[in-house]
Amino acid sequence: MARKKIALVGAGQIGGTMALVAAQKNLGDVVLIDIPMTQGMPKGKALDIMEGRSVINSSVDLQGSTDYAALKGADVVIVTAGFPRMPGMSRDDLLEKNCGVIKTVAEAIKEHAPEAFVIVITNPLDAMVYNMQKQSGLPSNKVIGMAGVLDSARLACFVADELGVSVEDVKALVLGGHGDTMVSIYESVSVGGIPLPQLMTKEKFAELAKRTAGAGGEIVNLLGRGSAFYSPATSAIHMAEAYLLDKKNVFSCAAKLNGEYGVKGLYCGVPVVVGANGVEKILEVKLTEEEKAAFNKSVEACKKNADWVDAHT
Ligand code: APR
What is the pTM of this model? Predict the structure, then answer.
């Protein structure tokens, strides 16, 4: 059986890290694609990882290209093409800049890899994945956005630190848009199977939820240049793995809603089941009135950006 092919459009910080992680996991052959202006950069990153494969027990092939034709035959396409945030910028500040980039990439995917499962990472995430699905015309079960996996992982990290337990035993759930309005769900967190409300007050949880909503910005400020890349990369590879290995993993991601949560035609962070058919199911979590109100507010923020995309494309 031929190896799977993973195309990474955008060979920057997240793209390069994803290539390494995919190789370490022997997930499939990898092609890193970037714009011609970057010259040898995608090839250089691919070659760098290729040369170290014997010490990571990997036998996948890695290539680099500045031609979208390299997308051909890709089973999964992960898109980071675009500009990252700088200190003082919100994700929404990238809307105008990244909208055109996504349109170009969507057209290339439509032409060269229309059967692929597409994961968008470019910010502002919910609007860019909406734009990707709209411009590529791919079915919505094959186009999702990476946000919830990362936001939930960040929340799990903060909960584990607070309780002094292993993060491996903490499962968390963050819904809504990938921005200030994201919603951390108190009763959905479990610690070794124990519901969080038995271990932590709602007030303490609210503090951690607030840090989660600002976690991307916290890293932007520390880095001084660019935004988080290690955990976004590992989160996206986790999602690709669910599809490629038909794992039917349950995680939160930006998926197109078709009436679920009372929302139609918009991308927003919700729990989904991902397997060989892409998004196989959208799961509806029972929310408290307070959570429902916060989720609806977040949906409004996603809608505002999606409306902007509609008005400008
Ligand atoms: N096609 C392909 N690649 C492109 C295109 C395009 N049309 N436009 C830009 N790129 C490339 C850039 O040349 C750059 O190498 O996308 C890459 C982005 O990499 P970085 O600037 O290092 O950004 P990164 O940290 O990887 O984040 C990428 O993900 O989390 C989001 O907010 C973040 O939108 C940003 C994206």
Answer: 0.98
